[in-house]
Structure formats: structure tokens, C-alpha cells
Design a protein that fits this description.
alpha/beta; six-stranded parallel β-sheet; 2 domains; globular; seven-stranded parallel β-sheet; Rossmann fold; 380 residues
Length: 380
């Protein structure tokens, strides 16, 4: 029996993590897969869809300059409802914890279409960390019919919220599928955004841009990076930071890090460049989510500049450390790893807890082999 699947995505991380799922679904006979891009990250999204060869069938283009979360959410509801009505899918798939995921799942529920949640069950327990992602993913859980949990810990979090075990599928994280695919592709460092990065030196990749860090916490993070750069100018550790375009990020980065001789500040880089930079790095210093799962695929230690993480598996496996947002804590942790080969080797030796690169096939199997007709919740 043929069936249709509507995949809704809006940001670059969603596109990266859903691209392997879309490819796996499109390889399955009898499954019609429609991809709807909301345009939450318009230019950055196009880079990823082009890289993975994902054709977006529908582009809503909801972003407006300086719009609030409320305005974005309202636009998404208005734009997505007619799409679901027109496509009339058996499933709507959403990923993670974005506003696009929250609205996509809710609109599907309003139309009594089954919802599959890719990367389900991540929790910090603090509704403001990360903000608004923690609450977005909890909202999706309430209406989801299939919960594609990346790890056993994520399954346990869902079960603790009384999600039926029969609707939870531990698949691994699809980002591992994506990052391994891109890492296998040849890459020319002599052209493109990394051409000026000195590869003969140990590299530390920095990514930091989370909304809840804006303000003094973010400035503290930048001060920590500057202090670390000064501490490790000789023998020449190079800190490489692709800087997010948000002025709340660019302004303090420019004020504090501009001019440091072993800090390379880049404009946002494409995903293929990021993967190869990450693969080449000796350490990643980040406040982002997905990179906590990506770097361990290459045995690269991760220092997480946050007070809480919804990805504790990396901490428990010893491949990541939670270092907070204060200057002193960040400097102490990173300085130790850059100065102590044994401490760094222990993290490198840790097992990646986030998957084996086959998550997308597991998700596609569940969706393609669900034999129930259109209608409400799977448990109905």
C-alpha cells in the first residue's frame, strides 16, 4: 500500500539531520516523500539541501527581519496548515526542537495526521535552557505518535513522561549518518572558506551563538577564548571561529577577539567545510547542540560552554565535558586538555554514544512499514 510522508524542516541543523532520512525514504518503493522548507534559516538551509541533493518541494519563506518568536510562530501556523491539508500525508516528520518542529507537529495533530519525531527524548529539565528549544521538544512529544530516540537515555526520559514504550524506537542520531557521509567526500583546503587556516598547527574549532548566552555570559565566553589564545600562542594553537551573523554574537566577538594573532574569525561556513575543519581539530569548544554529537564521530573531544546539556551521553562516555559559561571554568578545562596529552587521549579514546550511521534506515523502516490508514494517534 502506498503512503505519503511530509517532511518539514526550517533550519540548517534540521536539514542536516533529516537529509539522510529523506534519502532513505525516497529509496523505499511505494513511499511518496514531500519536503517542505519553512525557510527559518533561508541561505544556510539552501547550502545544506544543495550539499545533500535534497529537493525541497515547497518553500514557505516565513522569515522576516527582526521578527519575534511569536511572529515567527504565527507565520508558521498560517503557512503550514494549508500545506498539510493539500498534501494529505500519512505521516508528518519533524526533527529536534525548533519552532518549525513545534509548529509542524502541532499542525499535523490539528489535521489528525500521525507525527514522527526525529531526535526525540532530549531533556535538560530546565525550560529556559536551552530557550526555547527545551519547551519546543516537550510540546512535540505530547502529540508525536512515533518517537525516534537517538539513545537509550532518551528512551528512558520519554518513558518517565509516560510515553508508551511501543511508540519509542531507539535509532541512533541521524547526524552521525550525515557527518560520516560528508567526511568521506574529498575536500580541497586550498580554496573556499578554510584556505587561510594554518593547518600545520593544532586547531581548536569554536562555535558559540546560543540565545540564552547572549549578554554578559557570552562576553565571558569570549574573554575565555581570548585568554586561552594568549596562553597557547606558543607553540601556536590556532583557534578557528566561524561567527554567527547575529549582532548579539558578532559585536562581542569583534570587540574581544579581533586582533588576536592565533584566532581566525570566519564568516559562517558551509557544512562540508565545517565537517572537515572539525575532523582536523584537536578539540571543539562550543555551546551548540548538534556538534556535541558530530565531533565524537571523529574522536575529537568537546568542551560544552553551557550550564546544562540535553546530551549527557557524551559527558557520561567521557567524550565531552560540561565547562559552564564562566571565564575561569572554561579556561581551566580547555587549558588542561591542551596541555596534558594524557587527559586529551582519554577523551579521544571514548566511544561515540550517538550512533553507528544507520539511524535513517531504521526510521524509514518504521515509517514505511506502518500499515495503519490515515487517522489519529497510532495508539487509538
Amino acid at each position: 500500500m502506498s503512503k505519503s510522508v511530509l517532511v518539514v524542516l526550517g533550519t540548517r541543523p534540521e536539514a542536516i539531520k533529516l537529509a539522510p532520512v529523506i534519502a532513505a525514504l525516497r529509496r523505499r518503493p511505494g513511499v511518496r516523500t514531500v519536503v517542505c522548507a519553512t525557510g527559518q534559516h533561508k541561505e544556510m538551509l539552501r547550502q545544506v539541501t544543495d550539499l545533500f541533493g535534497v529537493a525541497c518541494d515547497i518553500d514557505l519563506g516565513v522569515m522576516r527581519p527582526n521578527q519575534t518568536l511569536s511572529e515567527l510562530t504565527a507565520r508558521l501556523f498560517d503557512a503550514l496548515s494549508p500545506v498539510v491539508a493539500d498534501v494529505h500525508p500519512d505521516w508528518v516528520l519533524v526533527q529536534g526542537d525548533t519552532t518549525t518542529a513545534f509548529v509542524g507537529a502541532t499542525v499535523a495533530y490539528y489535521h489528525q495526521v500521525r507525527v514522527g519525531h526525529v531526535e526525540a527524548g532530549l531533556r535538560t529539565g530546565d525550560k529556559f535552557r536551552p530557550f526555547p528549544e527545551e519547551v519546543n521538544r516537550r510540546f512535540v512529544t505530547v502529540v508525536a505518535d512515533a518517537h525516534f530516540a537517538p539513545t537509550e537515555r532518551a528512551r528512558a526520559a520519554l518513558r518517565a513522561e509516560l510515553v508508551p514504550d511501543s511508540s519509542i524506537h531507539v535509532t541512533g542520531n541521524t547526524v552521525v549518518d550525515a557527518v560520516l557521509e560528508i567526511a568521506r567526500r574529498p575536500y580541497d583546503w586550498s580554496s573556499g572558506p578554510l584556505r587561510g587556516v594554518p593547518r600545520e598547527r593544532p586547531l581548536v574549532l569554536v562555535t558559540a551563538h546560543r540565545r540564552e548566552s547572549f549578554g554578559e555570559a557570552f562576553r565571558e565566553m569570549c574573554r575565555a577564548i581570548r585568554e586561552l589564545a594568549d596562553l597557547h600562542a606558543d607553540p601556536g594553537v590556532q583557534f578557528v571561529y566561524p561567527v554567527h551573523p547575529n549582532p548579539n554574537v558578532r559585536r562581542p566577538v569583534g570587540e574581544i577577539l579581533e586582533g588576536a594573532r592565533n584566532v581566525t574569525l570566519l564568516d559562517p561556513i558551509d557544512y562540508q567545510s565545517l565537517v572537515h575543519l572539525m575532523k582536523r581539530s584537536v578539540l571543539v569548544l562550543t555551546d551548540s547542540g548538534g556538534i556535541q554529537e558530530e565531533a565524537p564521530a571523529f574522536g575529537v573531544p568537546v568542551c560544552v560552554m553551557r550550564d546544562a546539556t540535553e546530551r549527557p551521553e557524551g559527558i557520561e562516555a567521557g567524550v565531552a565535558r560540561l565547562v559552564g559559561t564562566g571565564r575561569a571554568g572554561i579556561v581551566a578545562a580547555v587549558h588542561e586538555l591542551l596541555s596534558d596529552p594524557a587527559a586529551q587521549a582519554a577523551m579521544v579514546a571514548g566511544r561515540n554514544p550517538y550512533g553507528d550511521g544507520r539511524a535513517a534506515e531504521r526510521i524509514a523502516f518504521v515509517v514505511a512499514n506502518d500499515s495503519r490508514s490515515k487517522g489519529p494517534h497510532l495508539g487509538a
